[in-house]
# Entry
Amino acid sequence: MSQKPQIEPLPAELVHEPLNWLFAEHYRHRQLCRLIERVGTATVLLREETEEILTFLRQDMALHIIDEEEDLFPLLRRRCLPEDELGPLLGSLSAEHRDDMEQTRVLTTLLEQALAEGRPPGHDLETRRLFTDFALHERRHIALENAIILPIARLRLTPGDLRALSTRMAARRGVVLDRTEDERPADGLEPSGGSV
# Structure
């Protein structure tokens, strides 16, 4: 019997609120980290959990990095003020994304081998350390983004920026935004000027 997924899916409609989507995606990354530590340090092969990690690394992780590298970070570079001093941090986070993709390839290979051989991926101390180090690094990365990047994005990005971000993120995931919903205010608030 198949067990309940350890990484919660996101409701597709949340893509209308792209910054909330990214924040929720970071929560899913924390769930991924717990799962990676569990699978990577287990003494038996946890097959379903291993397959869930592989699915996330191949699909969700890649999409999330593209969301940030191709859309969020360029928008922030255009909109941020000099006093935000965000340039060096964005550069550092982009470098970490490149490292993440390389580490993801390593973990993916180890997990695929574990499934093929029917043995736990963390079969020795050095391999277990790869899994725990990845989780530690990922937690630090998303903490920085939650504490600095997303709050500044909420201050600096325009409603048009947020609509464009939402549209591109939805397209990557095959979610069709109907015209009416796409024209809603990007922050989910009604326009001012109505009754108080």
Confidence is low (pLDDT under 50) at residues 181-196.
